[in-house]
Design brief:
Distance between the termini: 66 Å
CATH class of the largest domain: Mainly Alpha
Structural class: mainly alpha
Mean pLDDT: 90
Strand content: under 5%
Oligomer: single chain
CATH topology of the largest domain: Tetracycline Repressor, domain 2
Helix content: over 70%
CATH architecture of the largest domain: Orthogonal Bundle
Largest sheet: none
Number of strands: 0
Shape: globular
Order of helices and strands: HHHHHHHHHH
Number of helices: 10
Low-confidence stretches: 1-11
Length: about 210
């Protein structure tokens, strides 16, 4: 009977719907239990399919996690792009707005964000590499505009250091926020508006 039930549930999904359902279930598990609490069996149970169904679509647990990471980088790229647009015609404002977008994404999708940089749990995948490069290109383009560095030329050491410094600032801030390092000891979580105001000041000091 359990096998028949799983087969019936599997038949209710078309290919794309089952993939989406499994990635959504994975994100829910990561949010509730963290990466160490994730299993393929639990993802399958939550969408009422056989434990073999995720393997059929993703090949392995790492394959399913990689799919979630790809979605994360794609969403991050969109947040960075929207941040650049919000900055208007001022290169400094665009760069700072991208920094705000980076942290907003991390706070909105903490499970995705923390997974995206766990190479030990992901597979080597061309789509993952491309998605990560697309997100990084958004930030690099903002740095090029900010410094006036010509498009199409490899960054020099100074501009590359500025790029890595900008990324490190917002990446580190996001991780500290998610880890509760800005919370009042024994008190509530830090207010998102307060966090954003603090980040704005940091970005204004670093990239006036």
């Amino acid at each position: 009977m359990p096998r028949q039930k799983a087969a019936t549930a599997h038949a209710a999904y078309h290919h794309g719907a089952l993939r989406d359902a499994l990635t959504e279930a994975t994100e829910a598990i990561l949010a509730e239990r963290g990466l160490e609490g994730f299993t393929l069996r639990e993802a399958a149970r939550r969408v009422d399919v056989s434990p073999a169904a995720p393997l059929h679509h993703f090949g392995s647990a790492a394959g399913l996690l990689t799919e979630v990471a790809i979605l994360g980088f794609e969403a991050l790229t969109q947040y960075l792009h929207e941040g650049a647009q919000a900055g208007g015609n001022d290169p400094a404002a665009r760069l700072r707005a991208q920094g705000l977008g980076y942290v907003r994404f991390a706070l909105a999708y903490p499970a995705r964000f923390q997974l995206m940089f766990r190479k030990d749990r992901l597979i080597d995948d061309a789509r993952l590499l491309a998605a990560g490069q697309a997100a990084f290109a958004e930030l690099e383009n903002a740095i090029r505009d900010y410094t006036g560095f010509p498009a199409g030329q490899p960054l020099d050491a100074s501009t590359q250091a500025l790029l890595l410094g900008a990324w490190s600032t917002v990446h580190g801030f996001a991780h500290l926020a998610l880890d509760g390092k800005f919370d009042v000891p024994g008190g509530p979580r830090a207010d998102p508006q307060v966090l954003e105001a603090t980040l704005r000041r940091i970005l204004e000091h670093g990239w006036p």
